[in-house]
Specification:
The chain has 24 helices and no strands. The protein is mostly helical.
Length: 444
Amino acid sequence: MKYIIIILWTLSVVLAYFFGLSQRSETLGPTDTSTLQSSQVPHDIAGHSKQPPLYSNKTNQYESEAPAGSNRQDAELNHDAWDAETAKQTIDALNLNLQSFDLRSLSITYDIVSALNDTEFMSLLESYLPLGEDNQQTQVFGLLLLSYAEKQPQRALNLALDHSPEGITKTLFLGQVLGKWAEQDTNAALSWYTSNPEQFAGPMGGLGFSKIVSVIARDDIGRASDLVIDNMLQSQDFNTGLGSIIQHVNSASDFDLVFSKLNEMDERALPQSSAVRTMAMFKPDLAVDWVENKSEEYDVDQGALRDDIFGTWQSRDFVEAANWRLQSAPLEERQAVLEKISKEYSHGENSQKRFVWLEQQTDLDITSARINMIGGMAFSAPDVASEHLKKVQDPEEKLDLSYRIYSGYERISPRRAEDFLTSSDIKTKLEARIKSAKEFEAQR
């Protein structure tokens, strides 16, 4: 539950950040608080006295560690509009929380932080320290940190290291801030990441790496692929990094570059399979384009590549994926492909659609495929399975499937299981099978 809350927090922060960027130039203006009630907005904002930083020695520490090349245009920021105390009052009045937040309020927070100079920001940030068990306080701290990373990413990284709670929260903070640093100085961010592997050893540890890879992949997919391959022994880095690359692949040729590098590095099927599955997850159309026009250049199992694409794609759109997989197979192999689909992918969402699709394959023998699908759905979707049971003619297969469906109903509701038994046209045989199964279980 704790991890779920933290992940939801991360999504809210990221959404708010990008929403803030768009709203600043479109509707909000620098300090738009028009959506707040008048009682929530501090009075005399422009004339409020500036407050010194709570820990001036730490401010100096972060000032001295500014990344080379950083150049914030102070003259462009409206320092007279906000100081640390009025900023905190306004942010607290927004009542940011995990259960109920609006993106407009979060974007106002981002805009306030953008207007503060470094001294004012440090005073504001330290007013939320130390972080404890308060989720709202942690959320605000993270939002402030991510906003500050837009201007001073290395200093934000130092703050995350010094003040984030240990564990997944710290890893998430570091990963997000590292991504902002990578946008400004990719090499420096990558160097820091590779020099501090202990900071990303736990759950979600691949986040920082994926952020860096994503920035590189925007301009150079080949370099990003090399980086992922170099980190392949770290499976978490490999999988998340591969996903970051795929999101920037815009053509079959782009993906071919990724695949060729993986194939040169390791001719075993595992990394190539991961790449194809990841591609199918994000961009199935491009995965299909590649496998149909580029994949034959490689000494790989073409059927296995198509199975990889279908296996991922079918969870999003079973009918479209199944149609493609069946039609892409040679005529002499289509019956076997149908059997494989019905056996391995009978369960999942939209069970009824899977049966409808199966019944439409009139040019193939669907007898055993129907049995496979009924058996696969008996436990997870007994209603759908029982509806199609009447089409099974073989007595032994029907009895076996009936028992599976009965077990599926029994898991949901004993009453529904009894109703199914009562209505069965092979009730006597099914009762005997149920009795035999229970006696066997009792003897184990």
